[in-house]
Design brief:
The chain is of the alpha+beta class and 425 residues long. It has 15 helices and 24 strands. Helices cover 33% and strands 27% of the residues. Helix 6 (96-103) crosses helix 7 (105-115). The longest helix has 21 residues, at 240-260. The model has no long low-confidence stretch (mean pLDDT 96). Bound molecules: glycine. Glycine binds at residues 213, 227-228, 287, 291-292, 294.
Length: 425
């Protein structure tokens, strides 16, 4: 069986790799993929854009592809799943109406209110003046979110009024393109964040192994937020009791409410959670896709073939499937180009990838491309190095041992991924 993965990040390299672990998958195509997917055995990159719906459909139909997996949120928000399904293809990823859960923060908040899902209190504003007046009244700390997709840059956790005002002004200045029409201002929450990625066929929803990621660029979770600098699974903060609460208080109500709105949501529903000091799970955000880099830590632990899971979601048979997991833990450390998430250089040659893989780690490539026989950096987040082990601590140590073999100019990574587990905090 042949499959196609849309996207070019570390998540997509992981999806392609994971699909190829299945005995049924013979070949995977990536649109457009990266240096890692170009070198993956039985995998081929296609020089097409993720928004070339027509070209992707034509290729998939002519080559009898039996599964299309959409990695990033942007094509989902643009309706790629609807388009490809209408062409008769099997697509893993929600319809455009469902993808609003990530594409519009205001829409997601309204859904959470209707579903009585625990989340921070929030208000939505269409004008800058009304938003600024609300900020004055609420004070800080406070969270300012651009309503639409903003490539991970639309959320500001403001600790001063000046920061909050600047964030609101930025949103209404058009900095985030279509994200500028509305702003969501919500109460600041404290606690530990966790990521529960769940798969669903629109009726049944099943959580994957819970993960925790580190969004901030700097050690000690300091500095600006990024797409994620490292992740590990499982995370001790998500105890079996907490997972049961997330299932009944978050995941099931979300799917039931989507269904009541006539939305047949099939794919991943990613609940970004805050576990408050009082032990309450509250939703920070929903995403309509796999997390990056959480995927690099979660999928290597999945024993059930990924295509089986995805086809059960597409076919509405998830209730008949019991997910199997490998024992142990995984930790992914993201290796970035110095300067990310702002300006960073590209084109540096990466050496030591084979030596890193020989340690037993999984080296997933993100912002890379091939240049002749070399792999060169081509993005902010360059690699995701996943270590495996009996425990999270062992997995973290194995990830760092593999990174020690890798070198490129301006290489940057956090040395404290998983510190909460290691330090018991
Ligand atoms: N790691 C955060 C995200 O995928 O949105």
């Amino acid at each position: 069986m042949k499959a196609l993965v849309i996207g070019s990040g570390g998540r997509e390299h992981t999806l392609a790799w994971s699909l190829l672990q299945s005995p049924r998958i013979t070949e995977v195509f990536c649109v457009p993929g990266n240096g890692g997917t170009a070198r993956l055995p039985h995998c081929r990159n296609l020089a097409m854009a993720p928004n070339d719906f027509e070209g992707i459909a034509r290729f998939a139909l002519v080559n009898n592809l039996e599964l299309v997996v959409v990695g990033p949120e942007q094509p989902l928000a643009e309706g790629i799943a609807d388009y490809l399904q209408d062409q008769g293809l099997k697509v893993f990823g929600p319809c455009q109406a469902g993808a609003q859960i990530e594409a519009s923060k205001a829409w997601a908040k309204a859904l959470m209110t209707e579903a009585r899902i625990p989340t921070a209190q929030a208000e939505v504003f269409d004008t800058e003046s009304a938003a600024l007046a609300y900020l004055e009244q609420q004070g800080v700390p406070i969270v300012v979110k651009a309503n639409g997709l903003a490539a991970g840059k639309g959320v500001t956790v403001a600790h001063t009024l000046a920061e909050a005002v600047e964030a609101v002004t930025e949103v209404f200045s058009g900095k985030f393109g279509e994200a500028d029409s509305q702003v969501v201002i919500e109460d600041f929450m404290t606690g530990q964040e966790a990521s529960v990625l769940a798969v669903t066929d629109g009726q049944t929803i099943v959580p994957l192994m819970p993960a925790q990621d580190h969004k901030a660029i700097g050690e000690g979770d300091t500095g600006p937020n990024t797409g994620g600098m490292g992740a590990y699974a499982p995370t001790p903060v998500m105890t079996p009791d907490m997972m049961a609460r997330v299932q009944s208080e978050v995941l099931e109500p979300a799917i039931a409410t989507l269904r009541s709105r006539g939305i047949d949501y099939r794919g991943v529903l990613y609940a970004g959670l805050m576990i408050t000091p009082a032990g309450e799970p509250k939703v920070v955000e929903f995403n309509c896709r796999f997390g990056d880099p959480e995927t690099q830590a979660v999928l290597p632990l999945l024993e059930t073939p990924l295509d089986t899971v995805m086809l059960a979601c597409i076919g509405g048979q998830l209730d008949a499937l019991e997910l199997q997991w490998k024992p142990g833990a995984a930790a992914c450390v993201v290796v970035a180009a110095e300067g990310y998430p702002d300006r960073y250089p590209k084109g540096m040659e990466i050496v030591g990838l084979d030596a890193a893989a020989e340690t037993g780690a999984l080296v997933f490539q993100a912002g890379t491309r091939l240049k002749g026989d070399s792999v060169v950096a081509d993005g902010g987040r360059v690699l995701g190095v996943t270590g495996l082990g009996d425990t999270v601590e062992a997995a973290i140590a194995n990830a760092y041992a593999a990174i020690d073999k890798i070198c490129f100019e301006n290489m940057y990574y956090r040395r404290d991924i998983g510190y909460r587990v290691k330090d018991g905090v």
